[in-house]
């Protein structure tokens, strides 16, 4: 009888377990709503007219309009600002991944003077806030002729994101068995060929993760882009400040611009995340 009773209870969750799961999901829902609240308000405001935005009490149910998006897309030089953001974000991401991957591989596999100091101070450089770098970089870029150019902004973003990229890829490269690289050397590969043909395919998840953070930082950065660009080379985050006029703050257009700015990083993150999943499920390397 005891055996039959125990067999009937197999697979049935206990009351305490059900309560714990209910509390767990309730907390997750509340936290998700708290995190999504700014995004929901931004989307909602972007579809309102000015009178609805400043109404008191707030209007929660209204007829949406796309007038803010039309005015933003038809604004002067919007296409140029979008092109600047895409070029700066994508090129700086590619350069950062290229240099960061090779630097991380050198730190993991090679011995050189000052390796410990370089490894410890690499991530500390990322702790410097961009606002501190704005004035010194402005002075240096003025002397070097890189001010108000996309190349100058790309170099700043590469330097700013390189320490974090090296730190991420360092852990991925350190987990690769040395025997794989030794086998490639026996087959006639040099150090650079080993890195291209053996290491890079195995650290695809790390490259995707680093690309996500690097692109998002380069795409959303405001302070350095404001200081180092002009009306021809400014990016979308800086262009958003143009809606702060003498006649008031155009919140509808700002929220519409914010929504448009958030879309490319979202798409880029989705594509890169697929590479992370593909790399993790393609197979495991055993040492």
Pick out its properties.
single chain; 287 residues; mainly alpha; MetI-like fold; 14 helices; 2 strands; 1% strand; globular; disordered C terminus
Descriptive notes:
The protein is mainly alpha-helical and 287 residues long. The protein has 2 domains: 2-68, no CATH class; 70-281, MetI-like fold (Orthogonal Bundle), CATH 1.10.3720. It has helices at 2-9, 15-46, 50-53, 67-73, 78-109, 115-125, 130-144, 150-174, 178-186, 191-202, 204-220, 223-228, 236-240, 251-281; strands spanning 244-245, 248-249. A two-stranded antiparallel sheet has the order 1-2.
Task: Briefly characterize the structure.
The chain is mainly α and 287 residues long.
Write the layout of secondary structure elements.
Elements: H1 2-9, H2 15-46, H3 50-53, H4 67-73, H5 78-109, H6 115-125, H7 130-144, H8 150-174, H9 178-186, H10 191-202, H11 204-220, H12 223-228, H13 236-240, E1 244-245, E2 248-249, H14 251-281
Antiparallel strand pairs: 1-2
